[in-house]
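PT: before anyone asks, these are the final sequences, not the draft ones from last week. 542 residues across everything. Please model them as a single complex and drop the result in this thread when it's through.
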Amino acid sequence: MAPPGLPRPVAEPGTAVTGGPGQCAVRLAGVTRIYPGAGLHPPVQALGPLDLELRQGEFFAVVGPSGCGKSTLLDVLAGLSRPTSGTVEFEGRPVTDRVPEGVGVVFQEDASFHWLTVRDNAAFGLRRQGVPEREIAERVDHAIAFMGLKAFATAYPAQLSGGMRQRLCIARTLVLRPRLLLLDEPFGALDQQTRLLMGDEVLRLWRETGATVLLITHALDEAAMLADRVGVMSARPGRFIDVVTTGWPRERDSTIVARPEFGQVTARLWSNLRAESMKAMSTTA
Amino acid sequence: MTANVLSASPSAAWRAHMDTALLVAALVGAWQLLHFAVGGDALPSPLAASRRLVHLLADPDFAANAAETARAFGYALLISWIGGLGLGVLLGAHRLTGDVFEPMLVTLYAIPKITLYPVILLLFGLGISAKIAFGALHGIIPVVLFTMTAVRNIHPVHLKSARALHLTPAATALHVILPATLPEVFSGFRIGFALTLLGTLIGEMFASQRGIGYLLVHAMQNNEPEIIVALALLLVAFATIASSLLLALDRRLRHAA
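LR: through. Structure below.
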């Protein structure tokens, strides 16, 4: 394992993030997102221009100051929002106005359907796709057991804790066997201990499925612990100012936080982010 | 929600039935005591009223009046539910229209609608149409308000999830929007039901020659307290049973849709 380097000077905004060797799963080229103005409000450029390449099977985290366009990046990548300029590709095909097959998204907010049981929530996507019930049962059983929800299969989301509901949303996405998993601050509302444990589960999931994972987070330690590479975004309009390769082995878990290199990675992320966060605070204060 | 799931055991259901029976017994007891206190001319006893009700139910003339009320109420309820649902979806989905009409609806909901009855009579005449219009006027507003709120309160993340799960717009409407709004909409239906019944009966009490409302006023004019109380008993029983059924359905919808 190659230890990460010490904090180095911040790269120029607009750093192109290339995936290096390996097959490319996702490619963003010259992507910008500008929200049109309304009335007296001028248009707002939320994102870019930015370039990004993710290797197949890679775990990539994105950190950045509040309001820097992290979630906009995820929406554009998922096909939930159209970029104002630039191109987005998933497995070589352009992503337009719809979420491509093979892409799963887990949102920051609780997105579980409160009128369905845990089991029916998990089966929701498969049922809509017309998958045979027997196969649904198998895949749902596996997913809810994997996410530690087996004992709550017949419970409703209102009977679960926040962490369990988020695990349910992951299970609902997991059963669809996504090749690209987009996680938009899925643990944002959880306490620190639960977040560390959820991180372990996501790592386990990532290893088992072999999916490419993009995690949006505001927690530097979470990004440093989970990802192979961490992209640091600037204040709005969000662009990559640095990409930190963590160098962790594939077999890893939350105990990695005890390593001295973990502190170095987190310190480098923060040294990059500090000025940007102050910039973001001064524009929103 | 949790409490409802836990109370779904047979013994809890039996206890709930016992509670209802005890409540009915207490009310009948209080009625009997009040009858002793004020005398039969003011308040007939439960037994006398029940006997009178049995006679009334066997009377073909009463059946014709009840059928008239049922017809007026049925049409008024259909207008309240279907019209209220359509308007509610429109006002909920279109923010500006909703913002414009909501205060008007709330004001209309608050004013005593009997003051509008002369206008209704002028518009619809003295027949069944006026009763239907008056019933619907009472019932439609809560259905609109509840539906509008339900549509507005759909979590944006649910709609986003539907897109992330590759649902078509039709599948999103059927499998996400409908179940997400159904419990609220149904609560509106339940309140709309009670108010439509009230409106229809009031409509019959004035400027009408047929229906249960008319029978009530007729009995008041002829000083027939047994008929008044027997009819009141019938209406209370009907409204309570219907309301309980709708409430039970409402609670079920809040679990599974």
